[in-house]
Amino acid sequence: MPDPRPRSSTPTLATRSVETLDGALDRIGRSSFRAKFHLSPADARYARDRGRREIETHAARFIGERLAAADPDNDGRQTPMRGHPVFLAQHATATCCRGCLAKHHGIVKHHPLTDEHQVYVVAVIMRWIERELRRLPHDSCRAPLPPSKHRRPGMSSDAALF
Ligand SMILES: [Zn+2]
C-alpha cells in the first residue's frame, strides 16, 4: 500500500498562507533599507492597467530568467532599482538576488530554484504589490489614463485591487 500522507509534515513553501506571507513581509519590512521601497503612482497605474495575471506572469519570467539558475549571471546586481513594479517588489521583499533569498528566505545558494521555490517567490512579490496597491487609492493614479484595454469585467475580488 502506498502511503497516502504527504512526504513531509511541514507545510511546503508553496502552500504558505497569506498570513505567513504577511508575516515574512512584516519581518523583512522592519529593515529600513527594505522599507524605503514603494510603488510610485505610475508603477501602481501600470500594475492595475496590466492586471494581476499579467504582472504575475512577468514576475514568474523575471525569477525564471534572473534568479532560478544555480549561479545566476551578475548575481547581486541582476535586479534593476526601477522600471517595473516587480523589480521594486523584489528589493522590498529581499527576493532580488540569491544572497538575499538565502539570508531572508532560507533558500540555499548554488542550487537551481525548484518550481516550488519559484512559486513561493512570485507569491511573496505579488503579496507585496497587493499591499502597496491597497495603500494607493485608485482615483489618484488612474485619473490621467483612458480606460484600460486590459481590464475585463468579472475579475475576482483579488484582482479588483489591481
Ligand atoms: Zn539581493
TrEMBL record:
Stretch list, region Disordered: 139-162
Highest taxon above the source species: Bacteria
Protein name per UniProt: DUF4186 domain-containing protein
Native source organism of the sequence: Dermacoccus nishinomiyaensis
InterPro entries xref list: DUF4186
UniProt-listed Pfam families: DUF4186
